Amino acid sequence: MFTGIVQGTAKIVSIEEKELFRTHIAELPEELLPGLALGASVAHNGCCLTVTAIDGNRVSFDLIKETLRVTNLGDLQQGDVVNIERAAKFSDEIGGHLMSGHIMTTAEICKIIQSENNREIWFKIQDPAQMKYILHKGFVGIDGISLTVGDVTKSKFCVYLIPETLERTTLGAKKLGHRVNIEIDPHTQAIVDTVERVLAQREAAAAAMLDSDTQQA
Question: Quick one: which H or E segment has residue 64?
Fold first, then answer.
């Protein structure tokens, strides 16, 4: 599990390409290395990856076909930078919201509005079916960052970013057309799915009762 509070950024110093598979070697900040071991979980742009090798501050992670398909990690090139968060511990402060590190879809940055002290960024989700989980003032994970949803339209949503977020994460360097990873808040997803299921059951029961009354008449 993760909290959506980015602990640092890491440069991808090497990429080993294989068939439907690749290995990223990232140069992690020194403060994130203590206690790091093979098999540990580390989020890259919000996507949970497993440590496969450690050579000083250079840490290797394997990405399978599904990870490359669903996330923006397959777009990365040598020299690119990713947001990093190590797995949360039971004693850690939850400053954002609980996140699993499982990316549902990606979104494209379609508008950026800059003001004096914050930045408003609009996103268009790749999978429109996921928009039902994006609610005004709800939570969303964007490239591993826990953020509060601002305005929402039928196909787009925005977030408001303070200078600290822009400075500490990769969002400060994002441009129009860039893709970001999206993780839906699991609590919101559970509530929306439950309401949809209950309403569908009620509609089915009402239709069955109406059909029965029609046959009896």
Answer: strand 58-64
What CATH code would you report for 105-192? 2.40.30.20
Give 136: exposed, middle or buried? Use CB within 10 Å, 0-12, 13-18, 19+: exposed
For the chain, residues classed under CATH 2.40.30.20 are 8-86, 105-192
Q: Tens of pLDDT along the chain (217 residues)?
A: 899 999 999 999 999 998 889 999 999 999 999 999 999 999 999 999 999 999 999 999 999 999 999 999 999 999 999 999 999 887 677 777 889 999 999 999 999 999 888 899 999 999 999 999 999 999 999 999 999 999 999 999 999 999 999 999 999 999 999 999 999 988 899 999 999 999 999 988 887 777 776 766 5
Eight-state DSSP code of residue 128: G
- The strand pairing partners of 84, in sequence order, are 8, 44
- In a 13 Å sphere around the CA of 164, the CA atoms on its Cβ side amount to 5
Question: Which pTM does this prediction carry?
Answer: 0.89
**Strand order, beta sheet including 145-148:** 145-148, 139-142, 179-184, 105-114, 119-125, 156-161
